[in-house]
Specification:
The chain is mostly helical. The chain is 81% helix and 0% strand. It has two domains: 2-57; 71-279, MetI-like (MetI-like fold). The protein is built from eleven helices and no strands. Helix 1 runs antiparallel to helix 2 (30-55) and helix 3 (65-74) packs across helix 11 (244-272). It starts with a helix and ends in a 9-residue tail after the last helix. 28% of the residues are buried.
Length: 281
């Protein structure tokens, strides 16, 4: 029980430190903003370690973070192969294709009231379909390799991106659009110089949502058929033989990859939409 009590004491001390940091000037700087969630994450891991060791929790129920870290170090080649298959071959291509197709479709919808009234309701219906129902169908259509996973990701990414881009293209004010028309600007000039800049916060919001959906879609699709590697394949296989340490190691790698992808999009957003009020803090 000593490990548990040490973890609880550490948690309380870190909590007090975080409360102080959140109200101080340190949290308003760039490194300070990263320090608060970093301390919180470390305290969660320490408390997790203390609970598992202090209460003697079996590894098949919940392995300790130290055990998961050791498994990552030992199985790095396997985890890297799974990462390449799921993220680099499935999630990222599907994300790029889905986002690009959503952008072109949104521009077409913006130009056509018929498509706006007819396609968006259909899109909302398709977006509500459960991925566990679509994934096996797409796997049967596109095969068991990365192409089927990318197809699942395209379906998951397309409609959230479409809704956000369509809303963003309507974000500019009517007076601004009328002024561009008064100056004789074409649709393309108005789109590039006025409407797309105004839509950027919406577009990046869609990209951030899609970044998490892409990872989930690629992993779930691998549950329904994949080569003998991939994150979804690894999770389903290791659960079947009670290799919970490997399952958690795969989950940790997926979480780190998703966080890095999300963070990259956020950094790009700050550079592109520096003028937006949401970035002035």
């Amino acid at each position: 029980m000593s490990a548990l009590w040490l973890a609880v004491v550490f948690w309380l001390a870190a909590w007090a430190l975080n409360v102080w940091l959140a109200g101080s000037r340190v949290s308003k700087s760039g490194p300070g903003r990263a320090l608060v969630p970093l301390i919180f994450g470390v305290t969660v891991l320490v408390l997790w370690e203390g609970i598992v060791r202090g209460l003697g929790v079996e590894g098949v129920i919940l392995p300790a973070p130290s055990v998961i870290a050791a498994k990552i170090a030992v199985e790095m080649p396997t985890l890297w192969q799974d990462f390449v298959q799921t993220i680099l071959k499935g999630a990222i291509p599907g994300f790029l294709i889905g986002a690009g197709a959503a952008f072109l479709t949104a521009v077409a919808i913006d130009r056509s009231p018929f498509l706006q009234r007819g396609l968006l309701p259909v899109g909302n219906f398709v977006a509500a379909l459960p991925i566990v129902g679509l994934a096996p169908i797409l796997v049967m259509w596109f095969g068991f390799d990365w192409q089927s996973k990318a197809a699942v990701v395209v379906v998951m990414v397309f409609f959230p991106m479409l809704v956000n881009i369509v809303a963003g293209l309507q974000a500019s004010e009517r007076m601004q659009r009328d002024l561009m028309a008064t100056w004789g600007a074409s649709y393309l000039q108005t789109l590039v110089k006025l409407r797309l800049p105004a839509a950027m916060p919406f577009i990046f919001n869609g990209l951030k949502i899609a970044s998490t959906l892409a990872l989930i879609g690629a992993i779930v699709a691998e549950f329904f058929g994949s080569p003998v590697y991939g994150m979804g394949f690894r999770i389903s296989t290791e659960v079947g033989r009670l290799g919970l340490d490997m399952v958690w190691a795969t989950i940790a790698v997926a979480a780190l990859a998703g966080s890095a992808f999300y963070g990259l999009i956020t950094l790009i957003e700050r550079g592109v939409t520096f003028w937006h009020p949401s970035q002035r803090h």
